[in-house]
Amino acid sequence: MINTQGMVAETATKIYTDLCARDVPHEAEAGQYPQALWDALTENGLPLAWVSEANGGFGADHDEVFGAIWASAQAASPVPFAETLIANWMLDRAGLSPADGSASFALSGHTPSADIPFGMHADKIVLFDEAHHEISLFDNRVAVRSPEESLSPDGMTQFIFSGHLAEQSAKTDLSRRGIEALILTVRAVQMAAAMESALGLSIDYVTQREQFGRPLSKFQAIQQQLAVAASECAAATMAATQAASAIARHSDDPEQAWHEAVVAKVQIGHSVEAVTVPFHQVHGAMGYTQEYDLHHYTRRLWAWRDALGNEHLWSKRLGEALAVTSPDDIWKGVTTGQWVAS
Amino acid sequence: MQRFNFPVVQPDPALEDLRSELQAFLRQEREAGNFRPEPECWMASADPEFSRKMGKRGWIGLTWSSQYGGHDKSALERYIVTEETLRSGAPVAAHWIADRQHAPMLIAHGTEEQKLDILPRIAAGECYFAIGLSEPGAGSDLANVKTKAEKVPEGWKINGQKIWSSGAHMCHYMVALLRTSPADGRNRHVGLSQIMIDLSLPGVTIKPIVDLSGDAHFNEVYFEDVIVPDDCLLGEEGGGWKQVTGELAMERSGPERFLSSYITLETALYQLSGKMGSDSHARLGKLIASLRTLKGMSWGIANLLDQGVSPETEAALVKDLGNRLENDLTQQVRAMLNDLPSEDWSPDMRRIMNIGVLRSPPNTLRGGTTEVMRGITARQLGLR
Asked: What residues of chain A lie within 8 A of the CB of B320, using their CB?
């Protein structure tokens, strides 16, 4: 289970409960950005939770912050809270000050362009340049950007970066795997949380909707479908929690959490189809409408499972990494979560 | 909101020493030719000689008091032992069931005399138990059991039949769910009791049932006027249903529900070393992600059980996911092995793969079918 206790998680839960009721994601999508929600998060310093105290943040336990991310995803957060947390963490790990305002992030290999979630909303963009071990901060307005087709209501924007336009740049000790570990874990926690919420909607719907003179929930075919989906949700939460716990254990060297994060990515990425199909099926046509809430979760799940590449790509990466270690190493990883690096 | 209770528990380094000891022993036994690894070893691969060796080393009866021949260790240490023996495909079926569920049952409900007599023999790997739940008319509908125990001056007189009793032909006792009084109208859960039956008593007949692979590890067990003394009633008279369902969390959440076919994967990993193509990498990555996740869930439950919490729904979730996974594992490994010409498969690989395929159907049946597991989950979700 994700730890939702502690000041950071509880504050975030309260803010999302108060300011992100079910109409808010609908209004956001219609173009009414929930500024009050973002302001409340900022006033409480939550986007700085992963920034060290020396750098103006409050260096909260990783554990607690994952609880806050859980709350945001259960509310179908239409503001880039998780993205700003990640971006500020990257800046902090290069000794740079946190972003002024909201932020999103990109990992760049050798190309100067990247697809960025919340790209049209975030004030700043943080880029990891793998080739130069550098983290750079850009103002959103100076980058060349164009909205991409996106599965998620949060949007995806393509950016073209010109190095000389960066506001700040600094070397970082983070490796690509270290950054991947954190991003994949954040997405894993968001996906597990969204699945739980969508399961809740499905249970409510089938217990209220009647056909053939009785609630849908009384049909065994419906019960068994949702029981299978619930087992996938439970597995997703476990995988996300194991990854979050590995990140918390290895906060100084997140690369050590890479395997647990990839396990979560692969497990949950595959679960998305296994849950969104029955969730939509039991909702009938109602679940396919814009008016109903289900798509706030399912569209985000479809987008998040693609983050940094889809589950098929990451299954292969994990398999490749494991295949060069020994069967003893693999067994040790499965049973204890201590993976031998490859 | 988080619907299910699966705590994430970090591995305890102290447990890892025990793991190393197990690994060394199992490697040595296998290399000495004392066993041939098999999938589903905990159900179908029994060797009393091997069980006695495990007993001598203190790896049976870990969780109970040394007063009764146990080793005063935690359920987590027992978990490590079961996990390592499953990984090795070792012949542990003889003692598995007694160690897992009947010894704890005797500790909870047995007389002092029974505990002193039987528990040390279980811990020594010498005394085995069979499960007496299913009957010809009571499979998934367990409450339909008809085998009767009737009160007589000498104790209880038993008549009827149990079926699918794994290992009964080599077991010393069976703990059976029996009707000790009639159902109360439509409530069939009342009037059932758990009774321990010495299988060497007159009136007990055990007939093997041959499975589709030619093995005969399960049985029909007939009772004809079998008399057992009063103290063989375990727990409360009429409380059998509650006791049986209470044991299920322990029975359904252990590593045998998702690691039974791991030996197939591990054997293939040695075979495919350096030869895996990208399709196999993807299959391997997905399998390992699922195995690691299931381990987390099962380990979380083991920790709850160790604290005296018995989460029935979580156990049902592990069994459903785990059974699907272990059957899928066999299929994924079949596909992975295409990276190797079949004439290059080792004899062990072929044997293990064949056993894995042949032994896959009961995974999703025994200990409660997949459909029953989903029914339990659906009830917890508020759907029934």
From this structure: 227-228, 231
Residues of B within 8 A of A217 (CB-CB) are 382-384
- Is 90 exceeded by the pLDDT of residue A136? yes
CATH 1.20.140.10 in chain A: give the residue spans.
176-333
With left for phi above 0 and alpha for psi between -120 and 50, is residue A107 left, alpha or beta? beta
CA B301 to CA B314: how far, in whole Å?
Answer: 7
| Chain B closest-CA separation from residue A218 CA (Å) | 6
Does residue B185 share a domain with residue B92? Answer: no
Confidence of residue B115 (pLDDT cuts 50, 70, 90): very high
Task: Specify the CATH class of A176-333 in words.
Answer: mainly alpha
The C-alpha atoms of residue B356 and residue B50 are separated, in whole angstroms, by 22
Tell me what ipTM this predicted complex has. 0.96
**Range B27-31 average pLDDT:** 98
DSSP per residue, B234-251: ES-TTBHHHHHHHHHHHH
**Are A235 and B293 within 8 A, CB to CB?**
yes
CATH of the domain at B207: 2.40.110.10
Q: Domain residues for B324?
A: 253-380
* Contacting residues of B for A312, CB less than 8 Å apart: 282
User: Chains A and B: how many Cβ contacts under 8 Å?
Assistant: 178
Per-residue confidence (pLDDT) for residue A121, from 0 to 100: 85
